[in-house]
């Protein structure tokens, strides 16, 4: 590819394009013709070098102004901005952006500076609570074993009175460069792990890590309305970072114990309530104790059938982070047939049966009427 091709034409942008447009065009082309995306393709390699050189010029205001005025001559024979060619390149930081986009790695990184301290790991704690505790909320203490900042060296990892020195492997930069073909890749220094410095005399208590395992007791606030899987975050209560790096977080995952009476779906409470067949026939009222120890009175309409659900508004679970809002309680009625009757009760039931006309139970009479019609049709 000729070195005299217009830089704007190479990148496919207008001469009036702003910096963001030029950068966007360059990144798109660079990803298309990057040598690692086109192994063994000399044309792609040449185009990649050309667009990198073009972008190196146009991204810099002074170089761009010189190019707009003098053209390619601005970078020949020691002219203004004379750092042409791929050696002046698109800059390691720009190539690093492209490398990350293509490969998802850190790749290039010149100019990015020393690797940031890595924060401590986040921790998980599974906490089981009863449905009553989820209803009212509570404060509970938990005990965990966690890496905490070393008290002996105050988290530095160095023996008190001693310090650190620059890493000789990376020269204190935290990264080392390796030549790969025509470009340079930077990687985290294997000696100092990106810190850029090494400890002269490691602390004996933590062996240079700056943290030690310690038991910790924490007070956790469980808000009213928590549900299965609710996550509570305690910032900074996770593992301490190595050598003074910030700590991670602790996540409390709430799990609900199985309840003897109620089942829960969001803010709705479900339960089953058996009622006598006389109450089902004549109607009445039953009392269901709520989780707040208040009695919930459920009115039973006369003639209710087994499986019917009755809803009591506002008698369910509180909504999480709400101000008094509550769901409903749903009671499923199970009509119970008596299994032990006294002689008097049997006599009364016999008298009732003698007066039955079939209209008392329309579902039953309808069913047997359909059976009779079926038999007549078959006969």
UniProtKB/TrEMBL annotation:
Places the protein is found: Cytoplasm
GO molecular function, one term: heat shock protein binding
Positions annotated to bind Zn(2+) 1: 150, 153, 203, 206
Cofactor(s) this protein cannot do without: Zn(2+)
Domain J: start-end pairs: 6-71
SMART domains tied to this protein: DnaJ
Note describing how the cofactor binds: Binds 2 Zn(2+) ions per monomer.
Zn finger region (CR-type): 137-215
Pfam families: DnaJ, DnaJ_C, DnaJ_CXXCXGXG
Highest taxon of the lineage: Bacteria
Keyword terms of this UniProt record: Chaperone, Cytoplasm, DNA replication, Metal-binding, Repeat, Stress response, Zinc, Zinc-finger
Family annotation (InterPro entries): DnaJ, DnaJ_C, DnaJ_domain, DnaJ_domain_CS, HSP40/DnaJ_pept-bd, HSP_DnaJ_Cys-rich_dom, HSP_DnaJ_Cys-rich_dom_sf, J_dom_sf
One of the protein's GO biological processes: protein refolding
Residues the entry annotates as binding Zn(2+) 2: 167, 170, 189, 192
Positions annotated as CXXCXGXG motif repeat: 150-157, 167-174, 189-196, 203-210
Primary location class: cytoplasm
Record text on subunit structure and interactions: Homodimer.
Family note: Belongs to the DnaJ family.
Name of the molecule in the record: Chaperone protein DnaJ
Originating gene: dnaJ
